[in-house]
Design a protein that fits this description.
Blueprint: H1 2-7, H2 14-37, H3 39-93, E1 99-106, E2 113-120, H4 125-133, E3 138-144, H5 150-164, E4 175-177, H6 181-192, E5 198-200, E6 204-205
Antiparallel strand pairs: 1-2, 1-3, 2-4, 3-5, 3-6
Helix pairs in contact: 2-3, 5-6
Amino acid sequence: MAEAIVRFEPGVDYDRFRAYMRVMRVHATERNYTEACEPSLRAEREAAERAEREAAIQKQKADREERARAQEARAAAAAERKARTGQAAKAGSVKPKDVFYVVTGTDRVTGKPGVKFGISNGDGEVRLSRHARDGYNTRHRLFTGLPEGVAREAENGMLARLKGAGHRPLHGREYYPQAALGLILDSLDGDLTPAADSVDKEVKALTG
């Protein structure tokens, strides 16, 4: 059939094509004959073909898994970058504590005269108004514009100094009897005045 088709195709060297077909038939016949004589050869050939197909399938599977792992790694890296960006933005939105204040009044928890010191940011007015509503309605010191970390360090240092001097808090960490006021003011004036942008020593009544 192939010879009949090719015979009428223009430009085809029919003699060379017929010779090629003859060689192919001989080759196929010889292979079939050899495999018929030695069945193990056919089994080996079929096993080799199966192994080749299986290797191709396994390679495709490995390629798919590798692409999936790469995609997961890219997604994880993107999520980590997003998380770091969010944390950095959150950290950047927290205002540093750059204010230190001292207030006195009647402690509502104990009913005794007390002194309260602490740290805040900005002008400190929001925090001071809150303390005024709690009974601490007289301001004695307001240090503003402190370098980052100075207010927190002064707060921790004052707690240690009061403990060393034998003063015990009324409650909490920073609520003390008014007997500690002199030590607190003297210590802060010496520690914070050089570092602050502004120091207000006016004794001022606060409103909540």
